[in-house]
Amino acid sequence: MPAKKKATKAEAAPSHSEDKARRNRILDVAVRLAEEGGFENVRQRDVAEQAGVALGTLYKSFRGKEDLLSAALERETDALEKRLDKRPSAGPTALARVSEFFETLTRTLCKKPNYARAIIKAMASGEPEVAGNIVAYQAPIYRMIVAALRDPGHASPESDPTDEELTVALLLQQIWFAALVGWSAKLHGIPRVTEQVGVAARLLLAGVEAERTHPR
């Protein structure tokens, strides 16, 4: 009886590209299931089966549907940031650029409405395993808002954000999420989401300008 061939290290452990492809496959399935049937339709066993991975392998990376969905959002946000890096807003004012950014962000998320509602439910779940993905998701959002606040012709895009910029970015992100919760509950439509953020941005930026002109 021939001896079994000993697995090499390369055969025993998947490469980084294989890990990435498997992760993307898992997240693609989770997004599709969420869009087909909402939050409750994203079941770990179904995701594993349709992604072609063992259930134990899935659980090593994602401990629940909230973790899966928030990771999918993080991935999409990273892709949006890369896209906007290549084609930043050319609006003439900070308000115009920020408003355009939130319109793009909202449109990108809500083009799959059932998936978007599942994402909102996952992010509001309070599950500990989601916290890391939320932090990872917020970082590029902050960067994109700060980039929109700055005049691309005068500000250095690589300089660290100021406390003022971070405060505006934090407040706008929170207002946007609250408006999305209202949309998810069918209290208003998508245009109202971007309208609320636009009003908030106008008031915040006017307050910032007033503080600069007449500091207390």
What does this structure look like?
The structure is a single chain. The protein is mainly alpha-helical and about 220 residues long. It has a domain at about 65-215: Orthogonal Bundle (Tetracycline Repressor, domain 2), CATH 1.10.357.10. It has ten helices and no strands. Helix 2 packs across helix 5 (about 65-85), helix 3 (about 45-50) packs across helix 4 and helix 5 runs parallel beside helix 8. The longest helix is centred in the C-terminal third of the chain and has 24 residues, at about 190-215. It starts with 8 loop residues before the first helix and ends with a helix. Residues about 5-10 have low confidence and may be disordered.
Topology:
Elements: H1 9-12, H2 16-37, H3 44-51, H4 55-61, H5 65-86, H6 94-110, H7 113-123, H8 128-149, H9 163-184, H10 190-213
Keywords:
216 residues, mainly alpha, Tetracycline Repressor, domain 2, 10 helices, 74% helix, elongated
Q: What's the tally of helices?
A: 10
Radius of gyration: 21 Å
Q: Give the structural class.
A: mainly alpha
Average pLDDT figure: 88
Helix-strand pattern: HHHHHHHHHH
Low-confidence stretches: 6-12
Just name the CATH architecture of the domain at 64-213.
Answer: Orthogonal Bundle
What is the name of the CATH topology of the domain at 64-213?
A: Tetracycline Repressor, domain 2
Q: Write down the overall geometry.
A: elongated
Distance between the termini: 88 Å
Biggest sheet features: none
Number of strands: 0
The proportion of residues forming helix, as a percent range, comes to over 70%
Strand content: under 5%
What is the CATH C-level name of the domain at 64-213? Mainly Alpha
